[in-house]
Amino acid sequence: MLLRGALQRALGLFRLVLHKLPMGMRQRLRQQHSLMSLYSKALHTSRLFYGTLPEHKQQARYEKLILLQQQALEQQEQALQPDALIDCLVLNPSMQDLPMDTLKSLQDIPRVRHIYLVNANSGLNTADISQFNKTRILPLHTHTELDHALPLLLLRAGEVLHQHAVAAFLTSGKNSNGVDVVTCDSDTLHNELGRTQPQCYPQWDPDLQLSSGYMNTGICLFAEEHQRSIINFIAKETHAAAYALWLVTVYTNESDVATTHLPFSLLHRKTSYPMKWSDALNESGILIPAKLEITAGKISDTAVIRWPLASQPLVSIIIPTRNGKALVDTCIASILRLSEYRNFEILLVDNNSDEPESLAFFNTLAETEDKVRLLQYPYEFNYSAINNFAVAHAKGSVYAFVNNDIEVISTTWLGDMLMHVMRHDIGCVGAKLYYANRRVQHAGVVLGYGGGAGHAHKYFPHYHAGYLNRLIVTHHFSAVTAACLLIKKEDFVAVKGFNEQDLAVAFNDVDLCLKVQALGRRNLYCAEAELYHHESVSRGTENTPEKRSRFERELVYLQDTWPEYIAQDPGYNCNLTLRQENFALREV
């Protein structure tokens, strides 16, 4: 604590000195990436950077949340019929000792009928088993030994089930018409500290599963076909990642699975199963039929999934601007110089520029660069209308909406985003955007922040993995920012583009994404596509009464149009705060 206090004081002094320097010198310092990286890491250690809660405060919040969840779970238990039962499948990856803690937690739950053990034959004849009801604990080899009359709950050795977990799963299956799979949150059970480190998952996310295998246990199967499928699968795959890999096959085989997630910590982990997720995927061979390329992610339990491109579609990159010669120069030059994917056109849309230097530059750019066309939009600023106007002139089958204050970092940015947007079940694709000092500006949008919408992990340092590794893997968010957004032309046309009547400036990208999602698509945050975003430099801030009034009207429109997402974003968890963008637990 003393060290952290000293670090905070030092950083405060550094900021004071920095603000006393001339603007030009400050800009040069910010361009020294090694210096800014050291500064960012110091801020990360001090927790000043992005408002992360200290562990003791997070734990205090969790203990209150546990009590609140306990009350709700007890009510579900009391409301459920006494004869409502479940079977459990326990995978023992080590194939050595019996999972005593797991078995004890299950035996203490009357609603558990049979406990099927995989990889535990040697232990069933030992003295240790004498303390359990042997008629409930059975070895399992094939699905023919399983009675499919009841739901089947998947666990691994070393995991302890909450006393009311079965009631919660059964209640969810009863209340969710036609549900096939139910999942839950989890935490760590420490011998001295008790329940800690809650993991609060979003609703089922196939891309998060592909890139991180995040859902790997605590999975309840209601459909008999899925029970048979998992038993057949673990006959070949008996390691700790087996359940996670099976869920990947459910998606890649395009199975129609109704899935719901319970925001209760029903599973307590006493054993960790470290793994290299990319190796698990490659060695299983399950993605070979889909011709997906799998490489190691930034940390061992993540992977980068590359989808094949069946064609090379023309991408129309649309960049609105008013003046901003330097911004536009940096933006377009970086696109032309660094983009490996070359089948694109750039539509620069001039909205009433009046600086002679900018006007001359835009004309010269259009005359000298074959890929650049200059359009004139001589009306009042309306972001939605400008982009709707531009697409009428676009030749591509994919639109890329890009702000004039964007600067490319990764050479593969366009190809990375394009391979996802061309998937039939994907709608809008957004990028990972940084401020100039390499803090995160955008990594997906969460509905409900501040009663509207906000950017997940905002201000986190560039090297941070994020909550549940969500900063460094590609996965679903309900919305992404149009500061850099790709969408298929057919989807844009289907939803009638941006709403220029009600959302001239704010939330038009969120509204677009939600309309596309209503088509049955999923929107994605692409973690591999990295760019700088100098955030609305030319537009300015909402700092006048007129602008604030317009912003408030647009916020009300968003709230009235998409109330279910404001109330609970499926890409987020209701146990997490909506007051900050840092994935801390909410206060109860």
TrEMBL record:
<dbReference type="Pfam" id="PF00535">
    <property type="entry name" value="Glycos_transf_2"/>
</dbReference>
<protein>
    <submittedName>
        <fullName>Glycosyl transferase family protein</fullName>
    </submittedName>
</protein>
<feature type="domain" description="Glycosyltransferase 2-like">
    <location>
        <begin position="316"/>
        <end position="476"/>
    </location>
</feature>
<keyword id="KW-0808">Transferase</keyword>
<dbReference type="InterPro" id="IPR001173">
    <property type="entry name" value="Glyco_trans_2-like"/>
</dbReference>
<dbReference type="GO" id="GO:0016740">
    <property type="term" value="F:transferase activity"/>
</dbReference>
<dbReference type="InterPro" id="IPR029044">
    <property type="entry name" value="Nucleotide-diphossugar_trans"/>
</dbReference>
